[in-house]
Structure formats: structure tokens, C-alpha cells
Fold:
Amino acid sequence: MSWFKDWTWPGRLQDKGIIGMNRRNIRYIGRYNSRRLYPLVDDKLKTKLLAQQYGITTPVLIGTVTTQFGVKHIGDMLTGHNGFVIKPAKGSGGKGILVIEKVVDNQFVKPSGAHLTLEDVERHVSNILSGLYSLGGSPDVALIETLINFDESLMAYTYEGVPDIRVIVFKGYPVMAMMRLSTAASDGKANLHQGAVGVGLNIATGEALRGVQFDRPCFSHPDTGHDLASLVVPQWDTLLNLAASCYEMTGLGYLGTDMVLDRQHGPMLLELNARPGLAIQMTNGEGLRRRLDLIERQPDGVSVAKRVAFAQHHFARKSELAGTPDTTTASA
Structure:
């Protein structure tokens, strides 16, 4: 019987230390995240400006569009930029993000190869401003950033998109991590609900633990065919220290940090989430509860470096990707 079948039993979920939304919301988010701090992470522009103050690298900001009048000036703003990303400041779940890989003959080319006109880009920005992708449908701001040139060592593990790394940080300690790999099914977006592959990562080393797509075990990338067992995230210690330092930066005790690896700038912060999802438990094959319980017993005032070292020592895991895939698995 697969571990997915085992997880369908309540007792098995409890044994694994799985936490649900209620416990996450009440015990951790409600207790450790002050609502007055939410705007720091719910607004990507505020997050970017805050990160700059703390010396944390983020994608370079080309510009912002705040009014419908400004939409007609996008063409001038994009002149000289052969690749860029447009995203809503208050978007969530990857909604409203437009990636342009290159510009050819005044056509804007997406990673999928689809071509857009300037009018198409203007329309997308106008939709962002109207709140089409924002939390609660409120009026929004469009951010235009430089394109991320992700680390070449990760190219075989993703399809038409940038792989990102989600780290759950609790009281400044990195407690669990996964990499999200875009696929054809996810339309090049690193969103698990849309079909991206989630790969649990060993906190100690950045090595792959197990892969999941659509709640089912995944041993190789569905589009590139590359073996997930060989995945190791470069500059892992630097990335963990960056994630842990977001605790001091925001003051939020329960936090999801989303990062990428740029081939020139190394680990970069994409965005932060005060209400990170729980699918990371599935990709790791383990619940968060034991790790969170251990962190709650630690004293305050511990340095970033010591918090990272603590997590790497206590949360080390062995990979489950090696060996013959279980072809009898069923969805959870």
C-alpha cells in the first residue's frame, strides 16, 4: 500500500504530525502573526522596498504602473528590456503574472512561444490595476521586473518556467522546504494546484526527498524526463540564511518565503506569504507539527546562523526518491 493510501486514515495523519488549516490558522498564524504586519507581505511592492532596506536581493524593478493613464506609457518603460515579468502587487497563487522571455519584431514572446502585441500587454496591465487578480478584488498596482535567469543546473528540472523554493520559517527557524517545478500542465507556472511538481527538500543539504504531482508520487519531471533524485539546490546555506532573516525583516513568526536562484545574483527573494499553504507536508512526506513543537521550546534572541544550524541538525532527512517507483499508488 502506498504512503498516500496510508495518509487517508486520521490516525496515520496524526502519527505523521500533519497539521490542518484550523491548527495552522489558530495556533500559528493567529498567535505569531500580527495582522498589522500583513501589508508588508501582502503587497509585493512593499516587500521589495523592505527587502532593499535589509540588504536582501530581489529581482530588479523596472517600474510600476499605478493608474490607467500610465498604461499607455508601458511601451516606453519596456524599451531596451528584452525580457521582463509583470505581476500584480497584491496577487496570490501566481495569478496575473505575465512572463515575457524575449521581444521579437515588436512581438512579446512568452516562454510557451505564444506571441503578444503591445496592446495585449497593455490590456493585461489594465486588468491588474482594476483588481482582477488582487486579494479581495481591490484596485492594484502593476510591478514590472527584470527577467530572472535561473541557475543553469536547474534547467533540466523545469519546463517553460522558473523553479522556485518555498521555505516555511517559524520564529526565524527554517522548518521545511520544497522546490516547485513548472510543467506543461501548469502552463509554465510553479503552482502545485495547476500541475507543477513539488519536490520536498532536505533542510540539511538542499537535496531532493520526494516528488509529487497532482497528489501522486513523481520520480522524474513529466516533460523533461529528468530524474528528480539527482536534484540538489545550489548555494543552499546562503538560501536558508536569507529565508531565516526574513523573520527579523517582517516580524512575522509564521512565514512562507519564496525564492529563486539567479545565475548571476544567487538566491533572490521573490515574495513572502503570511498564510503559507500546507501542501509542503505532502512533498516532504512528513507533517510540520513535531518541528513546530520543537521550535516553540527554543529560547528567543538566537542569531540567524545558529537558527539555521539548529534546523539543519534536527530536521535532516534521507531521500525516498531512490529505487523503483511504486506503480500502484493512488491519489490521497
